[in-house]
Amino acid sequence: MTKNKKQAGDAVSLVYQCRLPLSTTTVASVADLLRRHLKAIGSRWRSKPTGRIAVLVLAVLRHDQRAADLAGGNQISATNMRR
Q1: Residue 54: predicted pLDDT
Q2: What is the pTM of this model?
């Protein structure tokens, strides 16, 4: 029997893709609503464009995906994903 020096929290991060049945019109409409809302509230610059944020929001709503899981696969923090 060999001893494993890795801690229990060490894990390999895997990213998978899924298909979202969304039309370009749907993504553009949500991105436009988001853009207008961010402008109205005086929100500061975001790390991702509004179109990409819209796709992430729709993925959460459509697949009930955990925010932390989506964040890791899209190079953003889980905190930013929750916002």
Answers
A1: 87
A2: 0.67
